[in-house]
């Protein structure tokens, strides 16, 4: 599942910036918000691929 791997990579890669943002670093907060938009899109892509897999007849 390529979409799942992308989603997990995005979340993992921004972990450091999340910690910095929690400490008050405004630039890190901006980066986290940007990545969260990408996470949102990756989650939509994953949802779409799961629905397509469900609806495709296995044969």
Describe this structure in words.
- The chain has 59 residues and is an all-alpha fold.
- It has one domain.
- 85% of the residues lie in helices and 0% in strands.
- Helix 1 runs antiparallel to helix 3 and helix 2 crosses helix 3.
- The longest helix has 30 residues.
- The chain is elongated and about 50 Å long.
- It starts with a helix and ends with a helix.
Secondary-structure-based class equals mainly alpha
Tell me, briefly, the overall form: elongated
Number of domains: 1
The largest sheet is: none
Q: What is the number of helices?
A: 3
Calculate the mean pLDDT score and round it. 93
What's the β-strand tally? Answer: 0
Low-confidence stretches: none
Distance between the termini: 20 Å
How much helicity do the residues have? over 70%
Radius of gyration: 15 Å
Roughly what fraction of the amino acids lie in strands? under 5%
User: What's the helix-strand series?
Assistant: HHH
């Amino acid at each position: 599942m390529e979409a799942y791997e992308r989603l997990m990579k995005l979340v993992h890669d921004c972990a450091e910036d999340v910690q910095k943002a929690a400490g008050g670093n405004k630039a890190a907060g901006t980066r986290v918000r940007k990545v969260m938009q990408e996470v949102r899109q990756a989650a939509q892509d994953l949802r779409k691929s799961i629905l397509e897999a469900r609806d495709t007849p296995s044969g």
